[in-house]
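Shipment paperwork, digital attachment
Item: protein structure file
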Amino acid sequence: MTTTQTIAPALRIPAVNRPVAVLGSVVVAVAVNLVVWLIGEAAGGSFEVVDKGVTTYVGGSGVIMSSGVPLLIGMTLAALLSYRWVGVLRVAQVVGSVLAVATIGLTVSATFDTASTIALSVMHLVLAPVIIVGLEALRRGLTA
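Attachment content:
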């Protein structure tokens, strides 16, 4: 009797150095979030919110800043701390992902239209796998 097993291919995450992990993650997150923003615009999202009589528009530059800056700061901090303790990368994967998903509540509680709320929420969700994969690539680069 012969048994045949089929093994699904696993996601291959390369081993990279600190600058590539940090900057690569930021570029990927910003690019994907700009695509999500464009899809939201095409779906009729206004990306405008009125707070205390002031209308604020979340445009492409806002997406770049909101996606790129926190990710750049967090990943850079994790990369620098990894000089002393490589285990911080696992902690940063969890903390960063949880924060990215948890802050969806801020978007949902704002008074955006439905298409804008969905697109902005998806942008938060995009950050979680980017953080996990980027920090895993960095960890593999340090332990290889």
